[in-house]
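Archive transcription. Copying these from loose printouts into the bound notebook so they stop getting lost. Printout 1 of 2:
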Amino acid sequence: MKNSHSPRIEPFFHRGSGTLTYLVHDGAHAMIIDSVADLNAASGRLSYAPCDEVAARADALELSVDWILETHAHADHLSGGDYLRRRLGARLGIGRGIQSVQATFEPVFDMAADDAAAGAAFDRLFDDGDRFEVGSMQVRVLATPGHTDDSVTYLVGDAAFVGDTLFSPARGTARCDFPGGSAARLYRTIQTLYALPGDTRLFLCHDYPDAGDDPVVSVSVDRQRRENAHVTAHTGEQDFVQLREKRDATLSVPALIVPALQVNIRGGALPAPAGNGTIYLKLPLNRL
């Protein structure tokens, strides 16, 4: 069995959203990071097939899945967190900054206070520096805000799951124009990641390969320091902030931001069915 310095990591790529989900385990116990549900917004069809694929793999390996973890409340896909929590009997965790994200978006979607208030949708809210065990694996939480208020990184041995903070070197860094985002905070977060040992593997949450190509799954800290298109070891904060803010001004709103946010701040749980038994998501006009 591999020791905790090098956990076993299996990626699952959801090409529709460019999202990477990870099954991380020690051969007996596991956690799933950044799960994805498949939504066709045009037809209103929701499928948990991507979650079932990860769960089936965990079942095949006879793993006890202890945690379903989110690096942040995503705006480009729906989380399968609550679905997997119920299917696998796991706990659901996210950074404590989710409370700020919830406070911003609960009024936008006119959500009842008990739906997601104070992180109630999650089993644990992680603070910077928190540590917990998954089998023989020791997990440390790093608060890594900038893209969003609630962004965290999960550090497991020589692997760090960085969410949307960094992309592949060619694609640079995450946008910072969502509520609570800050290019200056993202720059400081990246310096924290760049201070990790150079051979630390940074596992990405997103990649957007051309058809037929495989996604970039992980990149070493050393390579990001040398090659990242937006911020190398020699990039100053002012230059980065200017580049990031200029680029953000050209970006369109994510296609699934409206359904994603109202589901993901609930930990992936859907709203209660209406009187006719149908589940509805809201479309707030002129609010986003």
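Printout 2 of 2:
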Amino acid sequence: MTDVSIVVVSYNTSDLIQKCIDSVIKFSDNFSYEIIIVDNCSSDKSAEIIKKKYSDLILIENKSNVGFGRACNSGIGISNGEYVFLLNSDTILTNNAISYFLNFMRLNNFNHDIGVIGSCLLDSKFKTIHSFGSFPSFKGEINRLFSNHDKENLIDKFALTGFQEVDYLTGANLFFCKETVGKIGYFDPDYFMYYEEVDFQKRMAINNLKRLVIKGPKIIHLQGMSFDATMTSKKKFMIYDSMFKYFNKNVGFIENIAIRSLYLFFYSPIKILKNPFKIESYYILAFILNLKKNLKN
């Protein structure tokens, strides 16, 4: 059996994904691996470039953009590895990161109680950036929307243990046993993009599986480079639409209504009054569209 199946979803990132693949090949030693690229119908000839340059990897060419979670599911579904490593196309490995993940799991997962591990991601200047967070909740949304303390406290407690438990890791690098998917299921296909990895790890938490950030792997994440920067409105809508889907599925009825009311009656009006032409109007649109879907169901 292959040790690790590395699954990378690609969408119009022909230059970036080559750097990502090259970094994986350069720094991956002392274990067996396969690279599976899932291309979401890119229009920048990503698939053609990958086929010509990397003949040994596996390429899935979707006929349309099916979203991040569905694309990950395709890659996981055909993988042959004992472990799966989901890696964003806009990431670059700068050391043998995957070996760190593999060794950690083999040394620490005897009880099969670790759901997923990841690293503290770095920007291009090697400064730590957004890598994990707390599960969304009403209290958490109040803190995030109305305070200046909406960023997670970055990890500084590695000295003793080399790891720290968190609610969830961002989807840019997720390392887990393939058998975990048999326990909790694949990514929920209802999410097109955003919050699918939060939902995935929420199911791990329900099944008492730990989510850990570990010390050692060095991975640069060029955030947002896999999403068209000119589509700001669309991106904003997708984020909040996915967020409301997460709340529908993972919080109680009363908390769900409280969160929606927070956005609909307080946060959105405040933002729109300050700037009527700003994208915050999409908060309400996402709310209305999601509510209609709930009524139909």
